[in-house]
Amino acid sequence: MTQDLPGLDPALAERFAAIVGARYAVRAEADIEPYVHEPRGLFAGVTSLVLRPGSVAEVSAIMKLASETRTPIVPQGGNTGLVGGQVPDRSGGQVVLSLSRLNRIREIDPVSNTVIAEAGVVLDVLHKAADEVDRLYPLSLASQGSCQIGGNLSSNAGGTGVVAYGNARELCLGVEVVLPTGEVFDDLRKLKKDNTGYDLKNLFVGAEGTLGVITAAVLKLYPKPKGREVAWVGLPSAEAALALFNTAQELGGGALTAFELIGRTPMSFAMRHIPDARPPLSGDWAWEVLMEISSGRSAEDARTLMEDILSAGFEADQVGDAVIAASLGQANEFWRLREMLPESQKPEGASIKHDISVPIASIPAFIERAAVVVAGVCAEARVVCFGHMGDGNLHYNISQPAGMEAAAFLALYRDMNKAVHDVVRSMNGSISAEHGIGQLKRDELIATAPPHAIELMRRVKSAFDPAGIMNPGKTI
Amino acid sequence: MTQDLPGLDPALAERFAAIVGARYAVRAEADIEPYVHEPRGLFAGVTSLVLRPGSVAEVSAIMKLASETRTPIVPQGGNTGLVGGQVPDRSGGQVVLSLSRLNRIREIDPVSNTVIAEAGVVLDVLHKAADEVDRLYPLSLASQGSCQIGGNLSSNAGGTGVVAYGNARELCLGVEVVLPTGEVFDDLRKLKKDNTGYDLKNLFVGAEGTLGVITAAVLKLYPKPKGREVAWVGLPSAEAALALFNTAQELGGGALTAFELIGRTPMSFAMRHIPDARPPLSGDWAWEVLMEISSGRSAEDARTLMEDILSAGFEADQVGDAVIAASLGQANEFWRLREMLPESQKPEGASIKHDISVPIASIPAFIERAAVVVAGVCAEARVVCFGHMGDGNLHYNISQPAGMEAAAFLALYRDMNKAVHDVVRSMNGSISAEHGIGQLKRDELIATAPPHAIELMRRVKSAFDPAGIMNPGKTI
Lengths: 476, 476
Description:
Chains A, B: Keywords: FAD, Flavoprotein. The structure is a homodimer. Chain A has helices at residues 10-20, 29-36, 56-69, 123-132, 149-154, 162-165, 201-204, 238-252, 264-273, 299-315, 328-339, 341-345, 363-377, 406-410, 413-426, 442-448, 451-464; strands spanning 25-26, 50-51, 73-76, 95-98, 105-109, 114-118, 135-136, 172-178, 184-186, 213-220, 222-223, 227-235, 256-263, 287-295, 321-324, 351-352, 355-357, 382-388, 393-399. By secondary structure, chain A is an alpha+beta fold. Among the domains of chain A are: 105-223, Uridine Diphospho-n-acetylenolpyruvylglucosamine Reductase, domain 3; 227-342, Alpha-Beta Plaits (2-Layer Sandwich), CATH 3.30.70; 349-434, 2-Layer Sandwich (Alpha-Beta Plaits), CATH 3.30.70. Chain A is globular and about 70 Å long. The two termini of chain A are 32 Å apart. Chains A and B meet through strand 9, strand 11, helix 8 and helix 17 of A and strand 9, strand 11, helix 8 and helix 17 of B.
């Protein structure tokens, strides 16, 4: 029974519930269930109360009460985060604040190329709203059917469009944030340029709800491309993939809208486990790349540019083989292959995942060196490497050896993490390129980041949230 | 004599001087002169000591001593800032810290498309270094022959390339900062993606030296365009210019690398005062636009794209007349016209300047409404409006009426500022789009920004610089 849980005083729970009304104060255990687990099942939290406010005023009232009573609040969007940033701890004393009912698109302005969306707008809903006014909101994630804008911003989400359009941070012009005290910081300005004081917006973006609650944001829109081409490319080596990336960027510039690198092992998993999957190429390639070109001019222009890039790649021996999708259906099929890669890893057993970035030029060296240390930790482990090459960001996942006990493999978690992250650090890379810190990497961040940086982050945290009620136990 | 000045104890000055050596401790009044005035002559400071450290270790030692002795430090780059952020106050107690000797390019990596430059590297020197490895550093400012990277970042400089490449902030991947205590915050990572904790980088960028001293930065490079076309366009109205901008962005995307709007009055001033200036077009246009297209593919491609945009503009009655520069010489001549606009305003007498931004869709309405309030303050004042239309950023300068006394006109400074800025605020715009706050707009920022925002900025300032020694009297 929820009332038996430690932590949250029932009378206080009543006061919180009164703010949103009984209907939107989730208190039955079964109803709470979806809010306290996260997609990978690594972190399961406990709470007796999930609040689903329907307005910024309600969020503000919740934070005011939380502030007065020092009640820890865990903001949550679509609950798709991969590092446990959005789930409560196991104390039972943390209240989950779901932003999903704040789901209005307040304004869309195709002339200024901006949209003002509330935190709970689902990414795909925003895609469709932009599409209706002939615009593009380019953030593109595997979870876009359920992830929400507030979470995208709080985690500074990345995805496949970053190479051309940047992360969630770069796509955000302004935010509305309910501060821990309940005050509303309103910076919803549709401005491309604004040099009036410190950049507070970028502190809230990526702060994983530890500094305040993002309730709405001004986001950038782009003209919708008139032509799009998707190619699948086979390459002899990671060096060749790097060279092709630079060729593509040189010729295509901002028209290069995706450059996804895929290793041999994830390709073999995909062929084995994705229903109706067929290999786009016939040969056996060390690496494959999904490359997308988008043209603002015309479909023919996208085609010509794609052909030019591939021709240049063939001539320079960067490309071994390539096929351009012959139809929208085939293009979607290529994308489905790429997006199902994480899924197709599951049937292969336990896995230890890394979300790393290194300077782009270091990618081939990273791949080489990381493979050696992985084998050092577990000789038969299988490296499942794929990711966003143009951002220097690899999902460097390790699947257990075929015959091994899952538990025995997972016992190597820390050693494997350390081995891979040590290579990352030696290359001045990042141990969390796009997924964030959350609970998963907090201890490691604190242990390995330069002490000044941690100290400065702590001071920022205290400056914004002196009572420490905003998503405690996350980030820092 | 400098030793008679109040504020800085001579014995303390000796200790500071010893850190950099006598040669680089500027103490003679005549030598100090260039460090205490700024380009517009609005702020003249006083100091008895300018330090010119030659290494990060020296900067660190200076800040350590400053911290121990609570000595205010004013960091300075190329001293081209327009808001007085880089000059000391008149107390004589502030020490100027010139970064100009930290002028090494530490590394340039054309594969990762990054460069690591020290704060004192002159922007044009960086342009040339990038050019030598066939790359582009796209920040483009009128002062690029003397402004420095540290100042560009501290002021989050804008300029003419922002429409395609973003501000100085967006071009920066990492910073090295000497903190007020002398500790070195080293975040010089060449990463496109990094979600490990709060975004401290973007706090230092744009902080006008009030949080720490930027000593080096990792900056983004881009492939050098293979083709460039510059056109001069005559337009019947601001609405037409806005429509043409959207046409150009739709067709050109990231290939649209400049879209500079110029009013009738600045054009007439230019024709009157710029040596050998000739009007690019024969007609009399309400507005003119300098538009630049850069192609990564080829010179022909840039030409075709420019022609397509202009054709579409003609067809939609957005364009009245247009000429594409027939040679590199003519393209440079077009750019010279644009860049000399501020200069050509000077012979017309006193001026009251504004550096504003509004949502792009609001630009025509702003132009209309601002003209009314300007006339309300001074009936015969001449509106000199030009700027970066694609960023919603206008330099909305007001020249005195032809016959008026300069002093009488300048007596209207506050009223004029208030009138124009009130229009900006009513449109949810910014009173400092790209020049920053410095001394010039500090009081206005504090008086008119939302109190929460000011309070949060003050907390950030205290968190980073509890003793208040970093560039006091600026920003906040």
